[in-house]
Structures are given as structure tokens and as C-alpha cells.
Amino acid sequence: xxxxxxxxSALLVLWGLAAPSALLAQTPAEPAASAASAAxPAASAAxPxxxxxxxxxKPAAAPVxxxxxxxxxxxxxxxxxxxxxxDSDTExxxxxxxxxxxxxxRGDARAPFGKGGLQCEACHGPGARHSANKSNKKLTVNNFxxxxxxxxxxxxxxxxxxxxxxxxxxxxxxxxDRNQVACTDCHQLHTGKDPVRVxxxxxxxxxxxxxxxxxxxxxxxxxxxxxxxxxxxDCHNAHGSTSxxxxxxxxxxxxxxxxxxxKRGPMLWEHAPVVExxxxxxxxxxxxxxxxxxxxxxxxxxxxxxxxxxxxxARTGAALPGNGGAGSIFVVAGSCTNCHTQVHGSNHPAGAxxxx
Length: 356
Ligand code: HEC
Ligand code: HEC
Ligand code: HEC
Ligand code: HEC
Ligand code: HEC
Ligand code: HEC
Ligand code: HEC
Ligand code: HEC
Ligand code: HEC
Ligand code: HEC
Known about the structure:
Blueprint: H1 4-14, H2 32-35, H3 77-83, H4 120-124, H5 128-132, H6 152-162, H7 175-178, H8 183-186, H9 202-207, H10 211-216, E1 221-222, H11 252-257, H12 272-276, E2 286-287, H13 299-302, H14 336-339
Antiparallel strand pairs: 1-2
The structure holds heme C (HEC) (10 copies).
Residues 271-273, 280-281, 297, 300-301, 303-305, 336-337, 340, 343, 352-354 line the site of one heme C (HEC).
């Protein structure tokens, strides 16, 4: 779609991007051998140290070895756009898409396209070498993809450098960083609608890797993730956290209380396992039993409570309807919860046995 190239250029000119030279050093882009002499803009706080000596010059014909170099282009985005028009448009990628999210905000000095920003190269790395050389386009720039010549930490570096905020301060202790998951395994940045940040489309991003969870959320009882009503990030911080399973809150129970506040209490008559950990009785993602239970009563309760001493009848198959018995209240329907309705604790003065 070549029609988009002039449109994009016009857009950039309108936004004043045609003249980043006011902010960037004036050295014009040169052929491969001397591209390294273009100076990086000193104005940008995000600019890496460019005082390191330039890479050695190569004869023009020899293939340029892999590596980004240390030099930035003189004209920033304008140079990139000369070659990169909208040809590679897909559903989640357009060249101009980067202007549809916060990175394209010109008024935000912290953003790549803010005053003094490195524009495209804030993310893709110093681009003078890539722009000038003819022989090695693929191995001279950070493409953020799994096929990159850069390691995962190297690909993440520009993102981590700008995003040092509380939401991500546990990134390095989280399971994702420890297991070489890249920021861009989840995030799409050349779009105004990053699927991982939209409740209804986020699960598909996560479930591409988390197969067991894909199964669990299809079970009869589950949190309504498959209906697009809830996302993994309602409970988890994908950027890592210091609690179990990278939960948003320090404990499992505090995570649940975010939405199930009525289970928090305080209760006059507490039930010990409820106070301790909801996952004693519930699987959180999905279960084939009602109410996300790990087991069905009476077995659920009898993991801890002995049937001995209880005013009860035999809890065997004989008590089931059709087996000769009329159906014991200890076995059918909610079993124990037929009478002990307040399993989560009771505030009734006479609720000691969780009966009311
Ligand atoms: C002289 C033309 C030219 C300029 C200027 C240029 N590129 Fe490229 N770029 C290319 C070509 C050609 C490719 C390879 C495309 C392919 O083979 O799919 C490429 C590939 C890329 C890739 C993908 C690399 C990969 O491994 O898949 C990225 C990212 C990229 N360029 C970013 C930039 C940025 C950012 C700038 C500005 C600093 C820039 N380019 C300037 C021509 C250019
Ligand atoms: C905020 C960081 C960021 C900025 C700024 C940015 N990009 Fe990208 N770019 C990415 C990421 C991440 C990808 C990987 C694909 C994706 O996210 O959709 C990418 C992919 C690309 C690709 C490769 C597409 C492919 O098919 O492999 C090109 C080319 C590219 N960007 C060029 C540019 C140009 C030109 C600019 C400036 C106008 C720019 N980028 C600005 C983050 C950025
Ligand atoms: C030059 C600094 C800079 C770089 C590099 C950068 N970001 Fe950002 N990013 C920002 C700023 C500033 C915002 C605005 C949000 C804010 O106020 O915190 C932002 C916003 C975002 C958002 C939210 C987008 C929106 O529209 O609300 C995501 C997601 C994000 N960045 C991911 C990344 C990833 C992944 C990378 C690496 C490919 C990256 N960023 C690289 C500065 C940067
Ligand atoms: C495993 C997937 C995943 C990875 C990897 C990931 N993110 Fe995110 N990111 C998310 C999700 C999900 C959200 C939305 C969170 C929400 O809505 O509460 C998000 C939101 C964001 C936001 C915007 C909202 C905010 O919290 O400020 C930024 C910025 C961001 N991520 C940056 C990064 C950076 C930088 C990295 C790499 C260090 C990264 N992300 C790695 C999944 C991921
Ligand atoms: C690129 C693959 C990939 C994607 C996408 C991904 N993860 Fe992961 N995730 C992993 C790997 C690898 C681990 C570590 C091994 C494991 O526990 O399976 C992990 C671990 C986890 C853990 C366990 C943490 C712990 O401490 O035990 C949680 C929770 C998690 N991911 C949530 C998410 C969420 C939420 C998303 C989407 C926003 C997501 N993941 C997207 C690969 C991925
Ligand atoms: C209602 C809250 C909630 C939602 C929604 C949720 N999780 Fe979890 N997840 C948890 C809790 C709590 C645990 C810890 C379970 C435990 O301690 O046994 C957990 C554990 C995990 C683990 C680690 C499992 C293990 O075996 O160690 C992964 C991976 C995970 N979740 C991925 C996801 C993904 C992917 C999604 C979205 C599709 C998601 N979760 C949605 C609450 C939630
Ligand atoms: C972000 C909000 C949110 C959080 C956090 C949350 N839940 Fe839920 N929970 C829901 C919603 C919504 C439903 C579905 C209610 C419905 O279908 O009527 C639900 C339903 C349930 C059910 C009943 C399921 C059924 O099939 O009847 C149980 C049990 C449950 N949650 C336990 C937990 C536990 C345990 C935690 C903590 C690990 C937790 N929830 C965290 C929102 C949440
Ligand atoms: C001792 C086992 C046990 C523990 C621990 C437990 N639950 Fe339950 N929960 C049950 C049973 C049994 C049911 C089904 C109740 C019924 O059939 O009336 C249930 C039902 C639910 C429901 C759906 C019906 C309702 O009452 O809203 C939610 C939500 C729920 N539990 C949340 C939690 C939360 C949150 C925690 C942790 C604070 C927790 N549960 C701890 C046994 C437990
Ligand atoms: C993980 C173990 C565990 C599970 C599972 C469990 N309980 Fe409990 N329950 C306890 C503990 C511990 C106490 C406190 C006993 C005490 O204070 O002497 C308790 C107390 C009670 C009490 C009050 C007893 C009294 O003497 O005050 C009742 C009633 C009760 N549980 C019923 C149930 C029912 C019904 C279920 C199944 C839905 C169940 N429990 C599941 C551990 C468990
Ligand atoms: C038909 C109603 C009913 C059913 C069904 C029932 N209970 Fe009870 N349960 C009671 C009553 C009534 C008490 C109080 C007895 C008392 O105060 O002496 C009680 C007391 C208890 C106590 C406290 C025992 C004690 O010595 O103080 C526990 C624990 C208990 N039940 C667990 C269970 C479990 C586990 C089940 C399922 C296997 C169950 N109950 C099913 C009515 C029932």
C-alpha cells in the first residue's frame, strides 16, 4: 500500500518530526564506512554512552558483521521512514501504529518521540550502521523478535531502562524474566490496541504458552476468563511480584478479597482453613466440580474432619438413593454443607458449628 507512504510522511511533518535536527546532532548520514561518525543526540537522557570509540571501517563490498554499532542517525525517524513505509502492514503492525500509543506522544519528554527523544532508535537501538550499510540489514538492528541475533536481556534492555516503575520493580525476580520471556513476547507496540492489555484478548496471549491453564479455564466451574469478563492480570502481575505465583497481592487470600470481600470477615466464628488459604478447598482457574472445589463434600471435609463422634449415618454407597437407602443428607446435594451452610465462617451468635 504505497499510498500510505506520503500520508505517513505528511503526518510526521505535521507533528514536527521532519526537523528533529534541531534536537539531534547535525552530522548527515554517510555511507557504511563513516556512518559511525554521526554523533548521538546529547540532549536525550536515554542516550547510551556514545563516547566509546567507533567500530573499525570496512571496505564497502565486504559484508558488514553483526552488531548495532553505537551511533544514532542524524535525522531520526525521517531516515527510517525513507525505507520503511507501510508495506509490512498486518492486523497488529503498522509503521504508524507506534504513534497510536503513549510512545508516540510528543508532549511526554520521557517517551521516545518526546522532546529530545531518540524516536525509533530509542527502542530499535542505534541505527546509523543499519541505515547506511547495504549488506546486512537483518543483524544490525533490534527487531524484538525471537529470531533476533540479540539475547532476551539485550532485547529487553531498552524497555527496562525506561520502565523502572513500581509495576515492574519485581521483573528480575519474576518467573518470566528468569525463564527468558521477552517484553515483546507479550507486547505489540506498533499498534494502538496492544492485545495483551485488553481484557478480552489478553488470555489468548498468555494461554499460547500456558497450556494447562487453557484447559482449566474451559472447565464447567471457572473464573469467567473465557467469556472475556476477566483477565489473568486481575490476579497476576505478569511483570513479576514477590508473592507466590506472581500474584498481584502479597498472599492468595488478599488477592481473592479484592473481589470476594464478603469472605474476608472479620467473622465471629472463623473456619481455620478459610483464614489460612482459599486454595485449601478451591482450585482457582477451573474445576469439574461446582464452586471451583478441589474435592466434593463429604470427601472435601473429611480430609480434615473425622466422621467419628458426629451425629451421623453411614457415608457409604448404601446411603445413595437407588441403593436401597432413601438418600442420606450426609451424602446427597451439598452433603456436609446441607447443614454446615457457613463454611466460610459465621457471624451468627449461635454459628459456632457453622450451621447458620
Ligand atoms: C536504506 C534503507 C533503510 C534505512 C534507512 C533503514 N532501514 Fe531498516 N531495514 C531495511 C531493509 C532493506 C531491511 C530488511 C527487510 C527484510 O529483508 O525483511 C530492514 C530491516 C529492519 C528491521 C527488521 C530487522 C530484522 O531482523 O527483521 C528493523 C526493526 C528496522 N529495519 C528498523 C529500522 C530503523 C529503526 C531505522 C532507522 C534508524 C531503519 N530501519 C532504517 C532498510 C532500511
Ligand atoms: C516503543 C518502542 C518502539 C518504537 C519507538 C518503534 N518501534 Fe519498531 N518495533 C518495536 C517492536 C517491539 C517491534 C516488534 C514487532 C511488534 O511489536 O509489533 C518492532 C518492529 C519493527 C519493525 C520490524 C517489523 C517486522 O515485520 O519484523 C520495523 C521495520 C520497525 N519496527 C520500524 C520502526 C520505525 C521505522 C520506527 C520509528 C517510526 C519504530 N519502529 C519505532 C518497537 C518500537
Ligand atoms: C524512551 C523511553 C521508552 C522506551 C525505550 C520504551 N518505553 Fe514504553 N513507555 C514510555 C513512556 C514514557 C510511556 C507512557 C506511559 C507512562 O506514563 O508510564 C510508555 C508506555 C508503554 C506502554 C503502555 C502504552 C500505552 O499506550 O499506554 C507499554 C505497554 C510499554 N510502554 C511497553 C514498552 C516496551 C515493551 C518497550 C520495549 C520494546 C518500551 N515500552 C520502550 C517510555 C518508553
Ligand atoms: C507475560 C506477559 C508480559 C510480559 C513478558 C511483559 N508484560 Fe507488560 N503488561 C502485560 C500485561 C498483561 C499488562 C496489562 C496489565 C494491567 O492491565 O494491569 C501489561 C502492561 C504494561 C504496561 C502498561 C501498564 C502499566 O503497568 O504501566 C507497561 C508500561 C508494560 N507492560 C511494560 C512492560 C515491560 C517494560 C516489559 C519487559 C520488562 C513487559 N511489560 C513485559 C504483560 C506482559
Ligand atoms: C512466551 C511464553 C509465555 C507467555 C506469553 C506467558 N508466559 Fe507466563 N510463564 C512462562 C514461563 C516459561 C514460565 C515459567 C515456567 C512455568 O511456570 O511454566 C511462566 C510462569 C508463569 C507464572 C508462574 C509464576 C510462578 O512464580 O510460579 C504465572 C503466574 C504466569 N506465567 C502468568 C502469565 C500471564 C498472566 C501471562 C499473560 C499476561 C503469561 N504468563 C504469558 C512463559 C510465558
Ligand atoms: C482469580 C484469580 C486468578 C486468575 C483470573 C488467574 N489466576 Fe493463575 N493463579 C492464581 C492463583 C491464586 C495461583 C496460585 C495457586 C496455588 O497457589 O496453588 C495461580 C497460579 C498460576 C500459575 C502457576 C501454576 C503452577 O502450577 O505453579 C500459572 C502459570 C498461572 N496461574 C497462569 C494464569 C493464566 C495464564 C491466567 C489467565 C488465563 C491466570 N493464571 C488467571 C489466580 C488466578
Ligand atoms: C477480579 C475479581 C476476582 C478475583 C480477584 C477473584 N475472583 Fe473469584 N469470582 C469472580 C467472578 C466474577 C466470579 C463469577 C461469579 C459468577 O459467575 O456469578 C467468581 C467466582 C468464584 C467462585 C465460584 C465459582 C462457581 O463456579 O460458582 C469461587 C469459588 C471463587 N470465585 C473463588 C476465588 C478465589 C479462591 C479467589 C482468589 C484466589 C478469587 N475467587 C479471586 C471474581 C474474582
Ligand atoms: C474449607 C473449605 C473451603 C475454604 C478453605 C474456602 N471455601 Fe469457598 N467454598 C467452599 C464450599 C464447600 C463452597 C460451596 C458452598 C455451597 O455449596 O454452599 C464454597 C463456595 C465459594 C464461593 C461461591 C459461593 C459463595 O459463597 O459465594 C466463593 C466465591 C468462595 N467459596 C470463595 C472463597 C474464598 C475467597 C475463600 C478464601 C478466603 C474460600 N472460598 C475458602 C469451601 C471452602
Ligand atoms: C484443611 C482442613 C479442613 C477442611 C478441608 C475442613 N475443615 Fe472444618 N475445620 C478445620 C479446623 C482446623 C477447624 C477448627 C477446629 C477447632 O477449632 O477445634 C475446623 C472447624 C470446623 C467446624 C466447627 C467445629 C467446632 O468444633 O467448632 C465445622 C462445623 C467444620 N469445620 C465443618 C467443615 C466442613 C463442612 C468442611 C467441608 C466443607 C470442612 N470443615 C473442611 C479444618 C478443616
Ligand atoms: C444433618 C445435618 C448435618 C450434616 C449433614 C452434617 N452435620 Fe456436622 N453437625 C451437625 C450438627 C447439628 C452439629 C452440632 C452438634 C453439636 O453441637 O453437638 C454438627 C457438628 C459438627 C462438627 C463439630 C463436632 C463437634 O464435636 O463439636 C463438625 C467438625 C462437623 N459437624 C463436621 C461435619 C462434616 C465433615 C459433615 C459431612 C461429612 C457434616 N458435619 C455433616 C449437623 C450436620
